[in-house]
Amino acid sequence: MEKITMKEKIDVQKPDDLGLDISDLRYFLVMLLFSAVVFFLLISQRLTNTFDGLWNNTWFFGGYWQVVTGRWLWPVIDALRFGIQTEPFNSLLTLSISALAVTLLRKFFTEKDSVVTYLAGMAVLASTVTGIQLSYRFQSPVFGCSFLFSVLAAERVVRAADFRKAVVQGALLLVMSLACYQTSLDNFCLLLLTYLLLLLFRNVDREKVHAHIGRSLCSAAAGMVLYFLLTKLIVWACGWQMASYNGGADVSVLSILKNLPNAIAETYQLFGAYFFQNYYRHNILQPVGFFVLVFLALSIGLLNRFRKMLHRKNWEYILLGVAALIVLPIMCNAIMLITSEAVWLLQMGEGLNLFVPVCLLLLEGTRTNQPMVKKYVRAARTGAVVLAVLVVYGNVCSAVIDQEAMYEGRKTLKSMSDHIADDLMSSGYFDDNEQLPVLFVGRPSSNSSFMKREYYLYANPYAQMGRFWLNDYSARASWKAVFRDITPAKLKHCSVEQYGELYSRTELEQMSVYPQEGYIQQIDGVVVVKISDDYKVDKEFAPLIDLRELFQLIMDDINDS
Hints:
The chain is mostly helical and 561 residues long. The chain is 62% helix and 2% strand.
């Protein structure tokens, strides 16, 4: 029997067939077990982030806000789970959905598993992006569903039997993904673009390349237009108006075209900041220039594929390949092209998180099957494995640091809130049938008694428990959650309006801060609890410490002991 060449192999893939078998089940189970081990602390200790994840309890139904922000499939997913948001159910469900998405994703590039395919999947799941999504426990399965639908949408575009099916099925699944969380558009675009590179590197027929480009563009356009129309229709049918959150209410074709140059520049800036700065801490090795090495290695692998294309002198494929590489960073943040006013947050980083693993899968799926006789070929193969191991290692370490920061910060916050509850009891607050409303001033992390160890200092801001937002609504929601879940105590919390009124009072400036005497006082019928003096300032969160400082702190502790 003749050997199937790389070109022939892609031709014999069955359309409309996911092709799942026992190897896929094995891969799925390994991914699920690995990710559950990495995030065991978060799951077992029921950890949340210091923002919305803290505010929302283990029972939650999406409603008005989710619909008017365009996430109208969210309430449906909550209803299917009867509003249950508890652990370990939610996190294991989310990790299962994400593991299934990764299982399907790696089949875009290769039908045969290897060490690299396993490491690529682990790098996707064991990331701070996954960690922050899990820390929003009340919506983590929605994140997972959005990821899965985006992968399925791209899979249908690639494997549907004909053009019409590819566009219709891909568009419908893309709509479902966007209706959960809009930033999964990045995953869809990134996968289809890297699959185009796969076709080019494998030197498939022009008809297939052109068909893939047509399918991709038509399904993306149809999906986004259909999503926009359905969103408008659903919001109108509910009698509501689109929220202005992240510029969602002002999105139009004209606004997209008008802001396109600035949006493209912003996507490149985000790409550079994510991989080459230390603001978004997704890999513990990034401050020492690790990703310079990663991109150098990936560039060598990609240039080797282009060298083979040059030998074939297929200039159309070369130009398409170069264009695809230039556009890849944009596709990692494709949603920013639609809503350029959006404030980019780490939980929106699935596309960036996928970039290196997908590139590793692309190189793995286009390596030759010839015997590795030459030393440099063996060295390149070994280097790819070592690189993938280091990516996974760095991702896991950063994910663990964030979890430990949440755990230590929560313990410190509990110690503080327990003490406050005891002092309120000693002052007779709970003796009266008619309790006075309570107002908390300042964030716990700014108090000198709030312990910040190495993990807390190096973690991403979302994991720094007690570093609350200070505006009136957020401050009230945070402290209400503290005395609901961390130190259960029946307090009467004052209104948002009272926060705004009392923040400007001179009496607050003269009060002592916790735990000094006089940090609890009554002002105009409101019990004021002053935690820190930063209540008038809500600066943008910034990293507190550099990796080198972290290592120095660790060495100082070792020397002191």
